[in-house]
Design brief:
Length: about 850
């Protein structure tokens, strides 16, 4: 008995209705793997086993079959042909040794054929071509071969031609084949095999799968012109699919790339940041709906494993790396409408189970609205999802109107700064955001010296960048085509924790996006529209109306063809229009062609109503620490407070209108620090050194129960804030303007502002107004809502009162004084209080008001 010399995994791909499953059936029949030839239209195809597939006559789930061609054992993977299920096809591509691309002889190269070809090229899969339906009226072999070379690229050779003509065509495809032809005058199989593997040659056969024409020649070619993939010595495997059998057992499909996988072997990996270890309970070799159990799987074989609950499509096991992220993504979003009384969380769990099996299905839970949304490729997939939920879980659902999934990018480089420093935490991150070419996705890198930021912190920043889907600031859509590079950062020896860098990293991304120029992107279709000649004018007008573009029409005797591009949002309902106005004689092929600038961006942005500053899940502001407490700095002012310089701003400055304000604030902030230092020197020269622990402000407040000052008036609280009322009124422009008309109005306006501030900050707030010029004034202490208002006695100034209170309670309490009076600053420094200038206090109050607004809006 002759042993099998080689083992290959072969995928079959095609545009829908090209006869892909029929060819798979014919190959199995001619190879002796099945005894009866099934048919898709009869619902008895060997590989279309699911009831949904039989009902629709299309392949929805990739299937496996085993056959032998000559001396080659082939694991055949039949993939979905419909564009809605192309992500499943893409996952399967990453475990293939070779592929057979099926092209319809009546339709030629179609739009989805081109998409599949791009994927085959991306994953470097050597490809054979079978041109099907040659028994029906259509183009000749020569015309089809010319179209293949014109639409998909060069290298397509008719292997059914005479040997001399074939060898001459082969020599033009590959330099090494040309040298062989010149030396030997002919080519052998050993010469052709490497050229096919290098994707320099794409062997083509022409036939009719339904009649078994050309199938034997294809099988013979697969045996003669393929070679097994090199295997790793160590165990390695790649997961490409998850499904379940009729009993509900979870099946993890994988291809072994090296070593051996034995039954009951312990497999390990990581899911959602947590390690897992599970045993491979069964190794199933499927062929159609049936399977056999085996004890060991070797390199080049595909099997379904039971017992694994954490492995997901795309992960690598053992020595194998993870798969590339699929380039095909959902572009439509629908709300899931559950029946009356249904448990939304139970339904969410069922959808997540289907999400594991369907890589092109994304399930999104909107916490604030309590809604489930599904993101997918098209309406056929939507119908299949509805059927799966009803069939498997008995859950009858409907869907709301679909919406477009937009994306965002930036059009200029920008540095983003994030700082996170509440008390006893610290991290600062500087990131460079740069636009990338369309279709590049997100890329992350580090360009930071280790002496500036330790390598461990750098790796942590990159991990945080990769773990999150970053949102744009126009509509809150996912960010794409952006490279984010870590420029610099800073950690604290004692206070920095891992979560600090997560916060600083996320805030740096958002701060950079707020500063940069953003652009809204929308998905576009590549289309191919065939209509009767009399309808071509209507078709061209429609495409222009839909903001699309097209090449000059190709006209035949009866039909005309338009090829071009158009937004998904305008063209998604157009197929039904084509059927209507052409009375069923028109044909429209749509293939996703990536994302382009949105044609109606302003309208979409306005309708979204997204306000990035109110997105509490994605803050752009930073948190700094002063006087022992954290405070929020708006994103537009972060640069004036940051602790390190990346140098990027000097080499490539930000836009002047954005940069000027932070620079002015930074200068003012430095001036304030210099004033404090100068005031301290004056006091110490006059009265001697201050006997006060300089770190007291950064230590937790001791919660003593003794009253601090005027126990009958004041509550016990960890912090006191004394505000010099008239100094603040005349220092704040808006209050100063009010005071010119009515001092009483300005005074009450300040009181109302401070009530809101105290309610959020939870401090003891004492507002002091001068009354020393009021003859006979007895002074008064009043409770105004949640703050204390002091009117001083005759001959007592506000600063005298503040000095007295500070002297009394500053010994054991943290006291801050908001004022702009220079002399008073000297006095309060002497008593150990912390001075806050009128300008800085104004910014602090504005930050609090902003946070209150965000909190209120988040609860509406």
């Amino acid at each position: 008995m002759e042993t099998t010399q080689k083992q290959i995994v072969l995928g079959i791909l095609a545009h829908v209705d090209s006869g892909k499953t029929t060819l798979s059936e014919a190959m199995l029949y001619r190879a002796g793997a099945i005894r009866k030839l099934g048919r898709v239209d009869h619902g008895d195809a060997f590989l279309d086993t699911d009831s949904l597939e039989k009902a629709r006559g299309i392949t929805i789930f990739s299937k496996q079959a085993l056959l032998t061609a000559g001396n080659t054992a082939i694991t055949l993977l039949d993939t979905p042909g419909h564009v809605d299920f192309s992500t499943e096809t893409e996952r399967t591509l990453q475990v293939l040794d070779y592929a057979v691309l099926v092209v319809s002889g009546t339709d030629g190269v179609q739009s989805h054929t081109e998409t599949l070809w791009r994927l085959l090229r991306r994953y470097h899969v050597p490809t054979f071509v079978f041109v099907n339906k040659m028994d029906l009226p259509g183009m000749t072999r020569e015309q089809l071969l010319t179209q293949l070379n014109h639409r998909l690229g060069e290298g397509f050779v008719d292997f059914g031609a005479e040997p001399a003509a074939r060898n001459e065509a082969l020599a033009l495809c590959d330099e090494q084949l040309m040298e062989k032809m010149l030396d030997a005058g002919t080519l052998t199989d050993a010469d052709i095999i490497p050229a096919v593997a290098r994707r320099h040659v794409f062997p083509c056969w022409f036939g009719a799968a339904l009649r078994l024409d050309g199938v034997d020649a294809l099988l013979d070619g697969l045996d003669r012109y393929t070679r097994p993939a090199p295997a790793l010595h160590a165990f390695g495997a790649r997961v490409f699919k998850v499904s379940q059998d009729e009993q509900g057992t979870r099946l993890t499909w994988l291809r072994v790339t090296g070593g051996e996988l034995k039954v009951k072997a312990l497999l390990t990996g990581e899911a959602d940041g947590e390690p897992w270890a599970e045993k491979a309970n069964q190794l199933r070799l499927y062929s159609g709906a049936k399977y056999t159990l085996t004890e060991v799987i070797g390199p080049g074989q595909v099997c379904a494993v039971t017992g694994l609950t954490h492995a997901k499509p795309g992960i690598g096991l053992g020595a194998e790396r993870d798969s590339d992220v699929p380039v095909l993504e959902p572009v439509l979003s629908y709300q899931v409408l559950l029946p009356e009384g249904a448990d939304v969380h139970a339904a969410l769990g069922k959808l997540h189970r289907l999400e594991e099996e369907e890589p092109q299905l994304h399930v999104v839970w909107n916490e604030s609205l309590g809604e489930i949304h599904v993101q997918l490729m098209g309406e056929v997939q939507l119908e299949v999802l509805r059927s799966l939920l009803a069939e498997r879980f008995g859950l009858e659902v409907s869907f709301g109107p679909g919406g477009i999934l937009y994306k965002e990018t930036i059009t200029e480089p920008m540095e983003g700064v994030g700082h996170y420093e509440p008390l006893r935490h610290y991290a600062e991150v500087h990131l460079l955001l740069e636009p990338l070419p369309r279709g590049s996705g997100m890329q992350f890198a580090a360009d930071c010296r280790e002496e500036v930021l330790d390598k461990n912190w750098q790796r942590l920043v990159l991990t945080h960048l990769e773990e999150k889907q970053h949102l744009g600031v126009l509509t809150g859509a996912p960010l794409t085509d952006v490279k984010i590079t870590l420029l610099t950062g800073k950690a604290h020896l004692k206070h920095t924790e891992g979560g600090d860098f997560r916060q600083a990293t996320y805030r740096a991304v958002r701060q950079g996006l707020m500063l940069a120029k953003s652009q809204l992107l929308e998905p576009w279709y590549a289309f191919r529209l065939e209509v009767p000649v009399e309808n071509i004018g209507r078709a061209m007008s429609d495409i222009q109306r839909m903001e699309g573009s097209f090449d000059p029409p190709e006209s035949g005797a009866e039909t005309a063809t338009l090829t071009g591009f158009a937004p998904v949002s305008t063209m998604r309902s157009y197929p039904m229009e084509v059927v209507s106005y052409t009375r069923g004689r028109g044909h429209l092929s749509l293939t996703l062609d990536g994302y382009r600038p949105c044609h109606n961006a302003q309208q979409v942005i306005a309708e979204s109503g997204y306000q990035p500053e109110h997105d509490l899940e994605n803050p752009a502001d930073s948190v700094f620490c002063a006087h022992g407490a954290g405070f929020v700095v708006p994103w537009s002012e972060v640069r004036s407070h940051m602790h390190v310089e990346s140098g990027w701003g000097k080499a490539k400055p930000a836009r002047p209108e954005v940069q000027a304000a932070p620079q002015r604030r930074a200068m003012a902030y430095r001036a304030t620090l210099e004033e404090d230092a100068e005031l301290l020197k004056i006091f110490e020269r006059t009265y001697g050194p201050i006997k006060r622990d300089p770190l007291a402000a950064f230590r937790p407040v001791q919660k003593t129960e003794r009253p601090d000052f005027a126990a009958e008036q004041w509550e016990i609280a960890p912090e006191y804030l004394l505000v010099d009322g008239y100094n603040i009124i005349f220092a704040w422009d808006e209050l100063n303007a009010l005071a010119k008309e009515s001092l009483d109005t300005a005074r009450h306006r300040l009181m109302d502002i401070l009530c809101n501030y105290q309610g959020y900050q939870k401090c003891v707030l004492i507002l002091v107004f001068d009354a020393y010029r009021v003859p006979g004034s007895p002074g008064a202490i009043e409770q105004y809502h949640n703050i204390h208002v002091v009117y001083t006695k005759e001959a007592e100034t506000a600063d005298m009162f503040i000095e007295r209170v500070t002297h009394e309670i500053g010994k054991s309490r943290r006291v801050r004084v908001a004022t702009s009076d220079g002399m008073e600053q000297v006095i309060i420094l002497g008593h150990g209080a912390l001075r806050v200038s009128a300008r800085m206090f104004h910014e602090e109050v504005q930050n609090v008001e902003k946070q209150i607004r965000a909190l209120v809006q988040g609860q509406i």
